[in-house]
Amino acid sequence: MTEAPSRRTKGRTRAARVRTTGGRPKPHTRRAVGRSRESSSRTSGKLVRRDRSQLEALTSTLAWRRTPEETPSTPPRVPVRKLHIVMVGWEYPPNHTGGLGVHCYELCRELGRMGHRITFLTPFHGPFTETQGVSFRWPGRRTEGEPPVPFAYQVTSGPAEPGWDTSMNSYNDWVGSLAGLKEVDVVHVHDWFGTRGGVALSRRMRRPLVMTIHSTEYDRTLGFPGAEIREHEAYGLQRADRVIAVSRHLKQQVVDRYGVPPGKVRVVYNAVRPTPRLERLRDAGVIVLYLGRLAAMKGVDTFLRAAARVAPLAPAATFVVAGEGPELPRLLTLSAHLGISDRVLFLGKVTEEERSLLLAGASVFVLPSVVEPFGIAALEAMAAGVPTIVSKTSGVAEITENTFAVDFWDIDEFASRIGELLQYPELRRLMGDASRWEALKAGWPERALETVGVYVELLDAAGSRP
After folding, report:
1. Is the sign of the CA dihedral 164, 155, 372, 227 positive or negative?
2. Which of 135, 387, 451, 453 is the most exposed place for a label (fewest CB within 10 A)?
3. Distance CA 294, CA 84 (A)
């Protein structure tokens, strides 16, 4: 592949000018992308008009409304004294499966560095990554004379497990009646699984309740929410004193679908932490990477179909799928059907070290989610200097101007963008450099300070000025 000359117009890089919101590659770029046998039944390689209109309608339904940038608020007041936060979570590193665990760890890490104290409640026992200022409690751990916890309190791994409902309810009962907590300032619940216990605990202790919503049941089920989980979400969202959403359109979803007053919701984005392990690797080959769970909402099938179009014209490229999930058998079958089994590498679950190495070695990162509340993996790729393609229905698209954003169903466009980045190394470099700066300009220290600002706002309103 040859390098395209570096071009700037009015001081803006090409990567910024074609970033996503509507810019499309020139006609010769789209023609350069190969087509698989899968598309041969389509007229002139395009969707028939009826199918395209249906997909566009679906995009409109799933896409979160792009609300205007919120007016910058007054910088949060720094509390005079240190706070004690009881955080009701789910999992915590080193054993975690997604972005929620990372968020909790990074937030607690920064709160601890500020001098605040966190009691982290989780249904699972450790070991946990040691974190300054954080102590852990879980059902079954005897603390300060507590009686033994019945077996029913031992929570299983998820909704597919027998007896999961009973054990989850028991966990919430345990949270709500927890003893030995002294001088608590705030109760902070993450997502739906601890909402009932968090509400009960905050009311019993007469302390304000904050709930961070990382995704909703509408997202996880692609618009067909399970009644019980949705009820847990609604219960917490409606009773929390403040709700933190990880994106503006997730805030809008909370307002529209759950009837939460807009004035009660604050937006605090995710962040990433710079690390030397994210330096670019040399001689890593050409890697087009998807990294994340293999679930229907992630749209990994779109990644494979785009790979089938790109593969004939990018013989040096390897398409890597890193992660585990229920979609794996179907995706393996799909890659064979598309005739690209020899070009796709399924890695399964990867360690944190392997994750960093993959991001460091990737040439292009793709996040084709049907719906994505935030997309922290894409932000990590940007921080590693990897040019990134995301779906328009991802929260990370709100805070970046240097990625390509594509309709989640538009396989041709995903393929075209991948092909363009592989064909022009200079575009990859410019786009990667710009997105790296963008991803790191606001980190976890800033996000933690914004979160503390929400705590202080509630404590000021309650008259217990910290």
Report:
1. positive
2. 135
3. 37
Range from 135-144, 221-230, 365-374 that averages highest in pLDDT:
365-374
pTM, to two decimals: 0.67
Q: What is the DSSP string of 265-291?
A: EEE--------GGGSPPSS--EEEEEE
- Integer CA distances (angstroms), 79 to 83, 85, 211, 242, 466, in order: 8, 13, 20, 18, 5
CA atoms within 13 A on the CB side of 137: 19
User: Do the Cβ atoms of 450 and 457 come closer than 8 Å?
Assistant: no
Rounded CA gap, 136 and 120, in Å?
5
How far is residue 336's CA from residue 344's CA, in Å, rounded to a whole number? 10
pLDDT surpassing 90 at residue 344: yes
CA dihedral 299, 304, 305, 311 (to 10 degrees): 150
Q: How confident is the model over 179-217, as pLDDT tens digits?
A: 889 899 999 999 998 999 999 999 999 999 999 999 898
Residue 206 backbone zone (phi > 0: left; psi -120 to 50: alpha; other: beta):
left
The Cα–Cα gap between 396 and 99 comes to: 13
Question: Alpha carbon of 131 to those of 125, 189, 313, 389, 445: distances in Å?
Answer: 16, 19, 48, 34, 15
Complete domains list, the chain, with CATH: 8-62+274-440 (3.40.50.2000), 84-271+444-462 (3.40.50.2000)
b/e per residue 407-418 (b: at least 16 CB within 10 A): bbbbbbbbbbbb
Confidence class of residue 102 from pLDDT cuts 50, 70 and 90?
confident
Q: Is 31 exposed, middle or buried (0-12, 13-18, 19+ CB in 10 A)?
A: exposed
CB atoms within 10 A of CB 363: 22
Q: What are the tens digits of pLDDT across the range 361-406?
A: 899 999 999 988 888 899 999 998 999 999 998 888 888 889 999 9
Distance CA 185, CA 202 (A): 10
Helical pair 328-337 and 300-310, crossing angle rounded to 10 deg: 20
Measured CA to CA, the distance from residue 215 to residue 164 in angstroms comes to: 20
| Distances, alpha carbon 148 to alpha carbons 139, 145, 152, 417, 424, in Å | 9, 9, 12, 57, 63
What is the phi/psi pair of residue 145, to 5°?
Answer: 80, 10
